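Q: I'm teaching a short session on how sequence maps to structure, and I want students to see two examples side by side rather than one. Could you give me a first protein with its sequence written out and its structure tokens following it? Keep the formatting plain so it prints cleanly on a handout.
A: Of course. Example one:
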Amino acid sequence: MLTSESSTYFIEVENGNIECLQLGNGPKLLICLHGFGDNVNLFREIAPAWTNDYTLVSFSLPYHGNTEWKPSHFSSRNIREIIDSILKKYDQERFSILGYSMGGKITMYCVQKYYSDQIDRMILCASDGLKTHTLYDVSKLPRWYLELMMILMRFPKLMFKVVGFIYNRGLLSKFLYDFFMNHFETEKQRRRFFGTATSSRFMKPDLNKIADIVNQNKIPVDMYFGERDEVILIDGAVKFSEKINNVRFFQLPKGHLLIDEDLCKLMSEN
């Protein structure tokens, strides 16, 4: 049975201690995966749309939030261990799953590899893994580039000066400049970036297989994408949606940052 608690708690797994947040106490279970740089609290904004019917559980991915993670990378098997632990805690075999940005990519890969016959509904919000702008797809960064970046980041003050110099001359977009300034300042942030970049490159969903799985298992899919999204290109999302029999596609007049009160209202109405 699902509990009536709404709280933050931790699940201990082989390689770490995973921060989880429960919102609501509905009879069904909805597990949410956030994007890069986010944490469990991201989904508080949309929880009211779901908590009448669902218990919403989000967890902070390795290197994010208050999750403690020991290794220098994580795999889909680690994500499976976390999800299985959540299912066990709530005594559930079936569940719905929601993924935002990088969490959408991990969601699709895990559904493809582990959970094809356990999913009641899949919700993708500005999901990575469909068609990501080349500049923002860290999973496609060459290994030599990541290793070079790790060497250069031993001298962060110099790196910040170089990035500022390039930005001031109009050779770097504001998005990439802000991304660098917000995600490389501390050692913890740098470990998060390199650990995530190394790990996510091995979790690439096969979109044709995903479409076959959701169609064969009659899994309803909801897709929410921003028409001004610079990171996830909406035409790739549209093409993927055309492969799915039972899909609802919502195009919002927004960029990549979708998880907010407006999305909650849209979800509540649909």
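Q: Perfect. Now a second example for contrast.
A: Example two:
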Amino acid sequence: MDASLVEKITEMVLKELHSKDKEKPDQQVPAKTAGMVKLHGNLNTVPDFSKYARNREEKETPEEEPAFETFVDDPKEKEQLLDACKKTPARIGIGRAGVRPKTKTLLKFRLDHAAAVDAVYGEVTEQLLEKMNWFSVQTMVQNQEEYIRRPDLGRKLSEEAKKKISETCVKAPQVQVIISDGLSSEAIEKNVEDVYLSLQQSLNSLGLKEGTPFFIKNGRVAVMDEIGEILEPEVAVLLIGERPGLVSAESLSAYLCYKPRKGTIEADRMVISNIHEGGIPPVEAGAYLGSVIQKILKYEASGVSLVKKER
């Protein structure tokens, strides 16, 4: 996305968040909004992303709603079935040809499955890393098969990685941003640029200082604990590819933790997931992350501990 457009949308989201905090500081998360942002340790305010159009450029004519169809032959309650299809990307109303799926359904399934496999076994391009000016390090994982079978190795940095991080990065930053392919390189390729640029602008607007961002190949979520030991940031943010499914193979998650260290429990982490074009728009997610980080710093806590301190 164009940098000026990212800046404009980020400013809009930040303004909306600030106005909501001032008007209703004790407002609980509405049920319909909470579902849009999955948090392990929900905050009390969540922005309503629905008011921002998927296509950020202004259009003179409104977009037509997508057409929904069902492959069930002569369904008894067609309107109810079509209504259900509008509300979920799950494979419902796909019909059968005898005891088998229909050809179109089967081909779509195989296409989505192939995209998921490609996301897991693909690699983030050097062009993206160079464009974002991120250096790259490796966990103790040697190859993709080992990454899948040995999650523990994805949580540990290689000795070379530890040395490079220590020598290259700013020590004790307020916010340390880390990027990792995780289980979907496609999630990084498609979304991380918009998320990061928006997050960067959000941090600048809030007067928060960022450390030196970098990329970790074959990382797992808990790798942020080792980074916490080396760099000692106040808040660590890990942008990582989610496990791909048959609905989306390019979904990104943002994990946040206050002063991560070895032994950090999962209840002290929080996550905003489902960041992609069909979920939470990347630019809005980046802007929102800045406000979450601000709260973490204010209360000096994250996850369940943050929820307790907010009450």
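Q: What should students look for in example two?
A: Point them to this: The CA atoms of residues 183 and 222 lie 14 Å apart. Also worth mentioning: The beta strands are 96-97, 100-101, 135-138, 175-180, 214-217, 235-241, 252-258, 269-275.
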